Amino acid sequence: MPIAISERYVRRAIINHLGRKGWGRDLREKETAEHGVDIKVRHNKYARYFFVETKGESSSKSAKSVREVAFVYSLGQIITRMKAGNARYYYGIGLPEPAASIAVRRIPWQVAK
């Protein structure tokens, strides 16, 4: 039986990816029990911030429905954190591939950019 990918693993993978893309200043990674956005990071050269909500993978037998819930829940969390009219903020969700494939199917590409 495959091991489920933890939320912490997802956060670390995203932080590494963003670091390679020039995001690393003022990095704040939330611990699982804390409130707030999971990852907040500033671009190294510009005054722009990236906020990311992450979810791990469940080891539940009803994995398809659990992945769907994780996607919808993370989408709701990041949407409620958005600040209208602030062009310096970017938002994202980070999910393991099976849940991310749901996002690719359900979110219009204009929003998913």
Architecture overview:
This protein is of the alpha+beta class and 113 residues long. The protein is 42% helix and 21% strand. The chain has 4 helices and 4 strands. The longest helix has 19 residues, at 63-81. It starts with 6 loop residues before the first helix and ends with a helix. The model has no long low-confidence stretch (mean pLDDT 85).
Brief sketch in words of this structure:
The protein contains four helices and four strands. By secondary structure, the chain is of the alpha+beta class.
Q: Tags for this entry?
A:
four-stranded mixed sheet, 113 residues, 42% helix, alpha+beta
Write the layout of secondary structure elements.
Elements: H1 7-20, E1 23-29, E2 39-43, E3 49-54, H2 63-81, E4 89-94, H3 97-106, H4 109-112
Parallel strand pairs: 3-4
Antiparallel strand pairs: 1-2, 2-3
Helix pairs in contact: 2-3
